[in-house]
Amino acid sequence: MIIAGIIAEYNPFHNGHLYQLNRLRETLHPDLVVVVMSGDFLQRGEPALVSKWTRTKMALQSGIDLIVELPFVYAVGKADTFARGAVALLDQLGVTHLFFSSECGQIEPFQNTLSLIQGHQDIYSMQLAHAMSQGLSYPNAHAAAYRFIAKNDPRELVDLAQPNNSLGFHYLKAIEQRNSAMIPLTMKRYETEHNDRTFEKDASVASASSIRRHLLEGAALQAIKNKIPHATCTALKNAQETYGYASWERFFPFLKYKLLSMNTDRLSEIYEIEEGIEFRLLACIRSAHSFHDFITSVKTKRYTWARLQRLAVHILTDTLKSEAKPLALNQEPDSIRLLGMNRDGQAYLALIRKKMEIPILSKIRNHRSKMLEQDIKAAQIYDYLVALGHTSHPFTETGHPPVRYDAHQKSFLGDSD
Amino acid sequence: MIIAGIIAEYNPFHNGHLYQLNRLRETLHPDLVVVVMSGDFLQRGEPALVSKWTRTKMALQSGIDLIVELPFVYAVGKADTFARGAVALLDQLGVTHLFFSSECGQIEPFQNTLSLIQGHQDIYSMQLAHAMSQGLSYPNAHAAAYRFIAKNDPRELVDLAQPNNSLGFHYLKAIEQRNSAMIPLTMKRYETEHNDRTFEKDASVASASSIRRHLLEGAALQAIKNKIPHATCTALKNAQETYGYASWERFFPFLKYKLLSMNTDRLSEIYEIEEGIEFRLLACIRSAHSFHDFITSVKTKRYTWARLQRLAVHILTDTLKSEAKPLALNQEPDSIRLLGMNRDGQAYLALIRKKMEIPILSKIRNHRSKMLEQDIKAAQIYDYLVALGHTSHPFTETGHPPVRYDAHQKSFLGDSD
């Protein structure tokens, strides 16, 4: 059997994702397409526009067979951590081929790059430490160290300064580290000639970030209708009319309140608070009138925007070093949270369930672990803040069933409807 | 010199307080009246209707000469802690007579009660422990133990089940414990025949709680105008038009968010979280739609409403056991935060300043202690939550100068105006 895996955020699911999925089906003819998707908070340290349940529905309606959740501790982690958690879940689920988009578009340069870095680990590490001691951010220091060891290599290498190339590199590294038989495949990213800020009115594809920007700035759905599948359009419309889109600006009063309630000691207990950034955060929060204000005032060249946003998520969700660090560094996912499936996905699950080393959870009422506790907490905070001022949610996070979709009838089944 | 001291919350300053002040001036002819007043959070575990700065202005306009702040750790403490902090501050300030209202109205029964309990400390403690093991709240257990030792005493005693009698008793106890020469005096509380819920339309006096209830339920100021001094009326009107009154219901979304972000381990680090109440708090918060809902669902006979509200304040302000407990149990106030004064108050301060054992702080930019940190934090949270959605505050808590009032010109001076 060919089981294809995708690692995604679908924030929101758009035509570029659909294009990727169609290419995957055409080239690989998989028996099943499995997605591991981030929950309500994302790798760049942002709340998702709409909840993981809404995004699951979008993906099922566009042809994904099975969707599971990437636990919070990996989902809101740096590229390395993110990739390790996602690859582990896909591997556990029996995925044979990992399919990802990249600016590069060829798999060989990734393999060359991985072997190059592994062959020069000592020099690479020294150069990395040197660059960071000069005050560079991790991604910039990494790029500098990489340029240093790559400069005399005759092979075709991948440009790791490109964000999707960098993620892809970490996928390959994670596959190798766990001795997985999973085969990595890549395709060129649809909008690779443009940058993420580009948004062409008549083009059928735009980046997720430019779509989000349009939506958060209040543009009508009409303006992006040609860039998203019909199902996404309907789901966004519903979400917008019910609670509105989630955004850091909406959540900001709660982040500010949280920071005002903390001193530097307490703040330094938060995951990824390091190097004295706690003093800077507390000095900047008092006069910040918006999230954008705040991050702008905290920003230095040592910190990427994404890293500061991830810090803000950890503060908002009270994610502690003592709890998250051991999980992110050492631990494999200890269960698989099922977000949604169609009949094919369900049949596949029935097939593999007994062979699995970790439980697959449909509901999480009766299963708890440190890792799941963080997922539940993050979802509860997200749900509460999004719904604030509206009528209450009809369900609780812990009681939420997976979304079940009938691809033939094009309808949702049971209580997930 | 006769320096009279009053311990107050002035939430808000009303005709009953004015009556108390006038009686004090008529009977004692003090050279100065000093008030130690709680900050933005009060002994019953509630945010004050209007900020400490506004309440300071009310009090100065009604004839108080000097007002200092009772630090948060005492102000939001049980009667014992509250009294200990307040008496220590008045003592430091050279107060010769402590004047308080009580349901009893005579000082001798207080002295009899204090000597009775001190003479039967062992039996009293045993009875107290016994009653609490039966699941009674502390005040009820205390009343039961007291009834037990009081039953054969021929002297006139005070009914400690009455809230103002109980506070008065703790004032006398604190005076005795610190071997202070301060003389306690009491007068009968104005509305002693009525209970706190009573609010008579035409009466010139009503309790602060009934006045607050009217205001928070949206009654026009007109309805309470005959029960408060003109200065209070003006100050309330301004506050209401600027930010509205503070209340637990307005702050509730932040309390709920805070609880949703905590697990039981983290919650048990909060000051006064004991006996497993953390499980109950987390079990009840998810479905609570209002603060009143929440406390109602948590309430058992072991906990008084005030105790649960104080817990809620400690959660909202992230007041930790590790920080607050040592301060509340063992430590004296380590500085005196000046809130306001008229010329008499200022002259008196100049006189005593050099003899003081602890610094008197006009601004707190350059002086920090654990105790002050909590005061600043509580004020910052209060100010932020009250002003949320409005234009920002013109000043920061740490830079706020004391209010200076010219009693002859009936006007405020300098930058506090």
UniProtKB/TrEMBL annotation, chains A, B:
EC numbers on record: 6.3.4.-
Broad class of enzyme this protein falls into:
ligase
Reaction(s) catalysed by this chain, per the record, are: cytidine(34) in elongator tRNA(Met) + acetate + ATP = N(4)-acetylcytidine(34) in elongator tRNA(Met) + AMP + diphosphate
Which parts of the sequence bind ATP? 7-20, 164, 189
Signal peptide residues on this chain, from the entry's feature table = none
What superkingdom heads the lineage? Bacteria
Keyword vocabulary terms for this entry: ATP-binding, Cytoplasm, Ligase, Nucleotide-binding, RNA-binding, tRNA processing, tRNA-binding
**Location(s) in or outside the cell:** Cytoplasm
> Where is it mainly found?
cytoplasm
Family membership, please give it.
Belongs to the TmcAL family.
Q: Which NCBIfam families match?
A: PRK13670.1
Q: What does this protein do?
A: Catalyzes the formation of N(4)-acetylcytidine (ac(4)C) at the wobble position of elongator tRNA(Met), using acetate and ATP as substrates. First activates an acetate ion to form acetyladenylate (Ac-AMP) and then transfers the acetyl group to tRNA to form ac(4)C34.
Q: What is this protein called?
A: tRNA(Met) cytidine acetate ligase
Q: Which organism does this sequence originate in?
A: Sporolactobacillus kofuensis
Phylogenetic placement of the source organism: Bacteria, Bacillati, Bacillota, Bacilli, Bacillales
Q: Which gene encodes it?
A: tmcAL
